[in-house]
Specification:
Helices cover 39% and strands 20% of the residues. Helix 9 packs antiparallel against helix 11 and helix 9 crosses helix 12. The chain has 12 helices and 14 strands. The chain has 2 domains: 217 residues, Metallo-beta-lactamase, Chain A (4-Layer Sandwich); 74 residues. The longest helix is centred in the C-terminal third of the chain and has 19 residues. The strands form 3 sheets. It has a 6-stranded mixed sheet, covered by helices on one side. The protein has a 5-stranded mixed sheet with strand order 7-8-9-10-11, with no helix packed on it. With 303 residues, the protein is of the alpha/beta class. The structure holds zinc ion (ZN).
Length: 303
């Protein structure tokens, strides 16, 4: 990984788990984002190898989607690490309100964890002996933070900017504003001096201008016809289930989709289809994209 200093290590994990970023400082080691719960033992094994006997002192979450904080509980049990979460999520985590957190709405799992501190936009802290600033990055998630190290030009962009796009604009599915916030977040990133981006998913990249151009264009495509964002969400949420389970009985897909309150909302607002028809459409889309295949009564994960 030539783009980053040796003190920063990124475990690129794919789509079920977010990337994990390990920051090795002289005095302590910190990690940003902990992946999905079903990958937590693997996250711990990767981290242990990287730590070489040192403890994990601190854990940060960019935001509290299940694929970014699902390993928190295991890492806390293992290391008792000081954990910092976005300030605007504190009450929900304290009460473990799975309705207000996104887990229930998306049909995803996340074991309960605690926190020791909160991070708000504008806060600064030292990780890997460098000064980082947290910036608010609403759009994909109203509470998401991104972390910027001005001295090194490194941006931890979470799901606000990937090399090709960004995460689903979730607030719009519930009738709240998200496109305008996502645009403002991209503009904020464009105004920073960024040499390297560590995204929430996918590889570390240096062509920030290219990524921003693709992201602005995709945002335009989605916001000009919001049903596209809803359709994308249906596909993404079904693919996530498939990544988690690897195999789903086809006949169960409508039941699983019907059990996601967020999809009900998106369907009611933008798609207006009967759930079985929506399920059939989503399955066909994943198969067409080679993200799944049908084998007898099963839908199998692929790719
Ligand atoms: Zn996310």
């Amino acid at each position: 990984m030539t783009l980053l200093p040796d003190s920063i290590e990124v475990f690129e994990r794919g789509w079920l788990s977010s990337n994990n970023i390990v920051l090795h400082g002289r005095d302590e080691v910190a990690m940003i984002d902990s992946g999905y719960v079903t990958h937590a033992p693997q996250t711990l094994a990767l981290l242990r190898h990287s730590l070489q006997g040192r403890p994990l002192a601190r854990l940060f979450n960019t935001h509290l989607h299940s694929d970014h904080c699902g390993g928190n509980a295991l890492l806390q049990a293992e290391y008792g690490c000081h954990t910092a979460i976005p300030a605007s999520e504190a009450d929900k985590v304290r009460a473990w309100d799975t309705e207000a957190l996104s887990f229930r709405a998306t049909g995803q799992q996340c074991p309960r964890f605690s926190f020791d501190a909160t991070v708000a936009p504008g806060d600064s802290f030292i990780l890997a002996d460098m000064i980082w600033q947290a910036l608010g990055a609403p759009g994909h998630d109203p509470h998401s933070l991104i972390f910027y190290c001005a001295a090194e030009g490194i941006l931890v962009s979470a799901d606000a900017l990937w090399e090709n796009g960004f995460g689903v604009i979730f607030p719009e599915l519930e009738g709240a504003s998200g496109f305008a916030e996502a645009r403002a977040t991209l503009e904020l990133i464009a105004a920073l001096e960024v040499a390297v981006v560590i995204p929430g998913h996918g590889r570390v990249f240096g062509d920030v201008k290219g990524a921003l151009a693709r992201a602005f264009s995709r945002l335009e495509y989605l916001s000009s016809e919001p049903a596209r964002n809803a359709q994308n969400a249906v596909k993404v949420l079904l693919k996530f289930l498939l990544l988690e389970r690897q195999r789903i009985v086809l006949a169960d897909v409508p039941v699983l989709l019907a059990d996601m309150p967020l999809l009900h909302q998106a369907n009611r607002r933008f798609l207006r289809q009967e759930v079985p028809a929506l399920a059939e459409w989503a399955v066909a889309q994943l198969v067409r994209a080679a993200a799944a295949r049908i084998d007898g009564p099963y839908l199998l994960n692929q790719g």
